[in-house]
Structures are given as structure tokens and as C-alpha cells.
Design a protein that fits this description.
The protein is of the alpha/beta class and about 325 residues long. About 35% of the residues lie in helices and about 15% in strands. It has two domains: about 120 residues, Rossmann fold (3-Layer(aba) Sandwich); about 170 residues, Rossmann fold (3-Layer(aba) Sandwich).
């Protein structure tokens, strides 16, 4: 198997990323390394439709959107488009057949890599090492970049409501209900924070109703951007924030990618694979009382999040603000 090196003459690189937002973000450190070490190469990223806006309008990477719901004819046309590109390198972080079908000079092996037990970000970096033994992580974030348009949006739509105050991002949504903390707890924390920070809630359109419920419980005011911003604008908001309070979600990993401090409210997810990876983070987990966590064969649903107390989060806030 040929090994890629920084001296290799590379014109085109294809990186096969993920579909879900958080999973796609976890592949970004590998993309950053390739962009840093091969500055003259064209780099395209295969992503699902959910994660497209993460990479939109990015001068450093192109997007090849894969729609698994598309008819077979459209999928075949999509593959032919890739084939005509004649990629020199295919880094497949998803273990598809593309490295075999596209016949690049350098590629991650079709076999191996599935048994890596560590963090998902490290799994992708380990996968990259199977074809390219890079020297160090990238110093610059290339995979997700914010633009002047995002800055202008923030200044116009968000800045006035902050009144010049520092702010904290709260992401109370999660795709799996077992990962979500209760609305009453978020309301109490948001009221507590209002003395020192403005609170900015983020989420998608489905989270908007939950955030409205939390705001009705609050005694103070907060800003809600739920359903009003795209993923790139969310990245800009996170970068401007003091820190973020979130579940195991795409917001968590997006914050970590930009090294934003996070407090993570943790439920049943495998903490070894998905834990926050920013330099400053606090994890709150109370799964020792959860019957399902103690006995995976139990028919009872996970209720880990119900054991997290407001006091636990207040103590974590003290740690994150030290």
C-alpha cells in the first residue's frame, strides 16, 4: 500500500465524512490536517444533507453532497461525477466502497479501523494515519469557517439584544429524549446566569417550542435563536460566547471544535467516544442511579438525566468560570 507524504504531488483529495452534524464535526480535525499539509490541493468533502451548511461558502473545501434517499440513477450520476475528478487521495472516514471504486493512488484501506475504541475524533485521526502519518494537529481551523456575512448577521440580529454584555449559549435540545434535561432546570440556570451574563438559547425549529416553555418559566429575559440561524451562523455565535451549556449533541462538538469551554449534561451515551474535547470542559453525569445503565438488558428506559440537580449545574458553572 502506498503511503502519502508531504512531498507527494497531490492535486485532488476526497474526504468521506458523516451525515449527522455532530459526527461530521468530529471529522473536521482530520480535514484540517490535510488542508494544512497540502495547501495547493483541491479538497472535497462528502457529507449528508444535514451537515451541508457546516461547510458552505468555504474557500478551503468543496462539498459533494450524498443523498441516501435519492433514486439509484441520481446516485450513479453522483458517483460518475466523483470518478471523473480523478482524485489522487481518498480518505474514507466512513468505511464505504469509494476507495475501491475510485482507484486513487493513495487511500485509506477498506479493512481495519473499525475496532478503534477511543474517542470518535481520535478514531478519525487514527484512520487518517493509515494512509498519511502526519506530524502534528493543524494550527488553523479550515473545515468550518465563518464569514463577514455571519459577523454582519450577528451584529444586526443578535448584538442589540445583548446590550454589550457577555453571553452564554444554552442548547437544550437533543435528538434522543433520553439525552435531554428538564425545562424547569434550564429555566433556573438561565435565571441564575442573568446576573452576570445574557443567555442565548440555540436550537433547530423543533427546539423552539421547548425554549418557549423554558422562557415562560423564567423570571428574567433571554434571547432565542432557535430555528433562526444556520450551522455556520451558530458556529459564529459559539465563538463569541463565554461558554456553552449543552447535552451530547451537535452543538457540543461544534463548540469543542472552536475550543469553546462547555458544560456537558450527560446521559446514556458512551462517554469514552463522545465526551467534550475542548481544553476546558465539565461533564455532569448521574447515571449511577439509572437502572438501564446498571443493567443494559433491563426493559426500562434510560432516566439518567432526571438525577441531575440544579445544584450540580451551579457547581459546574463555578468551575468553568474559574
Amino acid at each position: 500500500m502506498l503511503r502519502l507524504s508531504k512531498r507527494s504531488l497531490i492535486k485532488r483529495i476526497l474526504v468521506v465524512s458523516m451525515t449527522n452534524i455532530g459526527d461530521a464535526v468530529l471529522t473536521c480535525p482530520a480535514i484540517d490536517i490535510l488542508r494544512q499539509d497540502f495547501p495547493q490541493a483541491q479538497i472535497d468533502v462528502v457529507v449528508g444533507k444535514k451537515a451541508v451548511s457546516l461547510f458552505a461558502d468555504n474557500p478551503y473545501v468543496g462539498i459533494k453532497v450524498f443523498d441516501k434517499q435519492a433514486p439509484l440513477r441520481e446516485k450513479y450520476a453522483w458517483f460518475l461525477d466523483l470518478y471523473r475528478m480523478k482524485y489522487d487521495v481518498v480518505v474514507d472516514l466512513r468505511h464505504t466502497l469509494l476507495p475501491l471504486l475510485l482507484w486513487p493512488k493513495y487511500a485509506t484501506p477498506f479493512w481495519g479501523g473499525n475496532f478503534f475504541k477511543g474517542h470518535k475524533r481520535d478514531r478519525h485521526l487514527n484512520r487518517l494515519r493509515q494512509v498519511y502519518d502526519y506530524n502534528a494537529p493543524a494550527k488553523t481551523r479550515y473545515a468550518i469557517v465563518t464569514t463577514k456575512e455571519d459577523e454582519d448577521f450577528f451584529a444586526k440580529e443578535v448584538g442589540p439584544s445583548l446590550q454589550g454584555r457577555s453571553f452564554v449559549v444554552i442548547a437544550c435540545g437533543a435528538a434522543d429524549s433520553a439525552k435531554r434535561w428538564h425545562a424547569k432546570g434550564f429555566a433556573a440556570i438561565a435565571d441564575h446566569l442573568s446576573g452576570t451574563h445574557k443567555v442565548v438559547f440555540v436550537g433547530d425549529t423543533q427546539d423552539a417550542l421547548l425554549i418557549e416553555e423554558i422562557q415562560r418559566m423564567m423570571k428574567t429575559s433571554a434571547v432565542s435563536l432557535a430555528g433562526k440561524i444556520n450551522l455556520r451562523q451558530l458556529a459564529f455565535v459559539l465563538k463569541k460566547s463565554s461558554w456553552a451549556l449543552t447535552h451530547d449533541s451537535g452543538v457540543l462538538h461544534l463548540a469543542c471544535y472552536f475550543n469553546v469551554p462547555v458544560i456537558a449534561l450527560w446521559g446514556p451515551t458512551d462517554i469514552n467516544r463522545y465526551a467534550p474535547w475542548s481544553n476546558r470542559s465539565v461533564i455532569i453525569r448521574r447515571n449511577e442511579k439509572c437502572v438501564r445503565c446498571r443493567d443494559p438488558k433491563s426493559p426500562l428506559p434510560h432516566n439518567c438525566m432526571s438525577f441531575i440537580e440544579v445544584e450540580d449545574v451551579l457547581n459546574a458553572i463555578k468551575k468553568i468560570q474559574l
